[in-house]
Design goal:
Helices cover about 20% and strands about 25% of the residues. It has helices at about 30-45, 80-90, 140-150, 200-210, 220-225, and strands spanning about 5-15, 50, 60-70, 95-100, 115-120, 135, 175-185, 185-195, 240-250. Strands 1, 2, 3, 4, 5, 6, 7, 8 and 9 form a 9-stranded mixed β-sheet that branches. About 35% of the residues are buried. The model has no long low-confidence stretch (mean pLDDT about 95).
Length: about 260
């Protein structure tokens, strides 16, 4: 084997983002990426970079994040490597599985879709409250919120819901699903797209809540999208209630 030969793997993991400054490495705070890279580097006995499928903001969680890593040798028993990695990671980061992929497979650029869920609680919850945006006593018109959300599928430019001054080349995204459902005492917003802009889901949720409160019409919601101006949209919803829940890839990337 050549000294420079490496083998690419996808790492499937989940994390509670409460104590982290987001996924991506930060100069002024601990990130999930930093924790994972330190654990992987110790196991591989060399500095090893880990590339994530995207960037979750500070306080945002992931029920499923995917990252790719180049191993200096073949991981024959991936289940054992999952076990070793979990022993080195803190309790709020868990690796589910590790999969061998083609050498040029990329966790970010090869992703076909990503799905987020946002949770609003209509009453205090002593167990799940830290993962909810609590709106006790504030009625929301869910039908109107769903009517507005359905219009998201008709647009591609979401500049109005993007954090300002980002380094992306385009603010175009293709949303394939967006809607609210009731789950017990919670309202759950689920949205799927090929890509998301920074702060996009939280900005959409915050603006849809304005629709639900009767402060913004469905037509007004569409006008905000068409304005391509972040200042026109509503305030971003809190990050603690947002979860990245799924990422999909083409089957041909995986080496079985």
């Amino acid at each position: 084997m050549s000294e420079t030969e490496t083998y690419r793997y996808f790492i499937y993991l989940a994390y509670d983002g409460t104590e982290y400054h987001g996924w991506q490495r930060q100069p002024n705070g601990i990130s999930v990426q930093e924790r994972l890279e330190k654990a992987v580097s110790l196991l591989f006995r060399s500095e090893t970079a880990v590339t994530g499928a995207g960037r979750t903001d500070a306080g945002v969680h992931a029920r499923l994040m995917v990252a790719h890593v180049d191993a200096p040798f073949v991981l024959d028993d991936t289940a054992q490597w999952v076990h070793r990695l979990n022993r080195m990671l803190p309790p709020d980061i868990v690796v589910y599985r590790i999969c061998r992929v083609k050498p040029d497979a990329h966790s970010r650029f090869d992703a076909q879709s990503r799905t987020y869920r946002y949770y609003i609680s209509c009453g205090k919850n002593p167990f799940e409250g830290r993962y909810r945006w609590t709106m006790e006593g504030k009625a929301l018109d869910v039908d109107r919120m769903n009517e507005a959300a359905a219009h998201l599928l008709q647009y591609t430019d979401f500049t109005s819901f993007s954090k300002l001054h980002t380094d992306v080349k385009t603010n175009n995204c293709r949303i394939t699903h967006a809607g609210w459902t009731r789950s017990g005492n919670d309202l759950v917003f689920e949205i799927t797209a090929d890509r998301f802009l920074r702060n996009m889901v939280r900005a959409i949720v915050g603006t849809l809540v304005e629709v639900g409160r009767g402060k913004l019409s469905v037509a007004g919601f569409c006008s905000i999208i068409e304005a391509r101006d972040r200042c026109k949209a509503g305030t971003s919803a809190p990050g603690n209630a947002l979860f990245l829940t799924d990422i999909t890839y083409p089957e041909e990337l995986f080496i079985r």
